[in-house]
Amino acid sequence: MFARIVAMQLKPNARQEFTKEFENQIIPTLRKQQGFMDEMLFVDPGGPEVVAISLWDSKQSAETYNRTTYPEVLKTLTKLIERTPEVRTLEVAYSTFHKMATYAAA
Question: What is the model's pTM?
Answer without folding.
Answer: 0.86
